[in-house]
Amino acid sequence: MQNDIQEILISEEEIQQRIRELGAQLSKEYAGRTPLVICVLKGAFIFMADLVKVITVPVEMDFMAVSSYGGTTKSSGVVKIIKDLDTSVEGRDVLIVEDIIDSGLTLSYLIEMLQGRNAASVNVVTLFDKPSGRAVNLEAEYTGFVIPDAFLVGYGLDYAELYRNLPYVGVLKPEIYTK
Ligand SMILES: O=P(O)(O)OC[C@H]1O[C@H](OP(=O)(O)OP(=O)(O)O)[C@H](O)[C@@H]1O
Ligand SMILES: [Mg+2]
């Protein structure tokens, strides 16, 4: 698996350090409130698990599964809901946890959906932001790392469902997805 990686972009230590900073920032922001923290599966599951451990305010959690990439490196543009929330978001302070914002299509769909269900507030924390990929104008309230224009894998990010379990984020060798 490591042999398919061209370059490690962000190390395990750098990721963990940045998550501690985000946790401290979010704990301040949500002091006195109990946000509903929503994990966007599958990609965000590792970030979600590490992030909630360093948030010190009480949180409720729920999970949604959406997919638009399938086995490719380009968004299909169609966001498919595979699993919806179990919890009502009405009147709740919602914090969406994403692994990456690339085209922005997944999040713009989700934000509109949650606002339509009358959440009191909808904020986004993303570990990675790839501004060069944007198809819609969208920014997260909290961002871990701004990353360059390359297809990345690791720390939850997959190519054709592989590589999510790498503890760092790396650039996949192009010959892997062009072969
Ligand atoms: O900004 P976008 O271009 O919409 O890309 C970002 C989304 O794409 C990935 O999910 P994917 O659809 O690959 O599903 P997965 O999380 O199961 O890998 C990633 O986890 C984000 O949810
Ligand atoms: Mg994916």
From TrEMBL:
Record key words, sorted: Cytoplasm, Glycosyltransferase, Magnesium, Metal-binding, Nucleotide-binding, Purine salvage, Transferase
Pathway(s) it belongs to: Purine metabolism; GMP biosynthesis via salvage pathway; GMP from guanine: step 1/1; Purine metabolism; IMP biosynthesis via salvage pathway; IMP from hypoxanthine: step 1/1
Domain Phosphoribosyltransferase: 13-159
EC identifiers of the protein: 2.4.2.8
Cofactor(s) recorded in Swiss-Prot or TrEMBL: Mg(2+)
Domain of life of the organism encoding this protein: Bacteria
Pfam families xref list: Pribosyltran
Location of this chain's protein in the cell: Cytoplasm
Broad class of enzyme this protein falls into: transferase
GO molecular function list: glycosyltransferase activity
Record field: catalytic activity: GMP + diphosphate = guanine + 5-phospho-alpha-D-ribose 1-diphosphate; IMP + diphosphate = hypoxanthine + 5-phospho-alpha-D-ribose 1-diphosphate
Gene3D superfamilies, A to Z: 3.40.50.2020
Family: Belongs to the purine/pyrimidine phosphoribosyltransferase family.
Protein name, entry field: Hypoxanthine phosphoribosyltransferase
Gene name per UniProt: hpt
